[in-house]
């Protein structure tokens, strides 16, 4: 399986390089026009050139996962309702005024597509590299980012490429799949013999290395999401009930699972504070979707939700036995549900989180040390 995976990624790397070479050959005739387009956003009042997204099913519905849905770890083919436009990074992109973000594997390697922003995210992607060729890990996505940034450097003059990268936003959302794997698939069951802090430290150290990697690649505006409260997801609650080891709270959430996730979020938040101090010219933001979703779950009526436990699209108890294998099986009022499928929130929840990330309303202090709106308007 690993050999086959290597061949797949090698193939796409070759294709990208061929496209890059073709662009270089014909690039001189439109370099000045391209440089002009690169700086257009700044002239129009925006301080963000593009948005580049890395992550798991929180940023990708499957459009950017090779051979999906033929190869997936569990039976839930539709992790969002319709398209990536219902997910948090795309909703934030709309607020910034960026609407042309393409999945990495749907582009042909042209400069214009890279300039428009790319989504490198892959459903079920993990921080820890587990050798899967169907779901791009954190390191694999970073390599794809590197290839794309090399294209900018080859096509644009050095100064323009540097300014473009520094004024772009890099959005990362990882960790969820690592914890799902830990609690449900047991492929990382040896971690259960250690503390929550031990496992979280392993993950956060790799995320910190990724942030340093992006900084070294001239990224200066970075958004990093925490992991949502997995103990409240329909699947985790159902699995815990099946094994009779669930310590449920009044909202039906499994406390010990949430405690593990909370440790990861706390450490990641701390490391981002340290990185901001280490790199004064960087602007790294931590967005606490964990606390944001708990706020919604604790006060569903206030935010317009009726169901905080069952998946809108799924089968079995609370829609948690089998995931969303067809959107035709979805509930009629998705906006009244907190959960779309086994592990992912609905468009309605993401919309609230996007607004809170942008403006601190209606949920304060979701993103820190400043809001996404403030990040957008920060000069690099």
TrEMBL record:
Leader peptide range in chain numbering: 1-27
Example GO BP: lipid catabolic process
Pfam families in alphabetical order: Lipase_GDSL
Keywords noted in UniProt: Hydrolase, Lipid degradation, Lipid metabolism, Signal
Nucleotide-binding as UniProt keyword: no
Source species, domain of life: Eukaryota
MF terms in GO: hydrolase activity, acting on ester bonds
Gene3D superfamilies, per the entry: SGNH hydrolase
Record InterPro entries: GDSL, GDSL_Est/Lipase, SGNH_hydro_sf
Family: Belongs to the 'GDSL' lipolytic enzyme family.
Protein name, as recorded: GDSL esterase/lipase At1g71250-like
Source organism of this protein record: Cicer arietinum
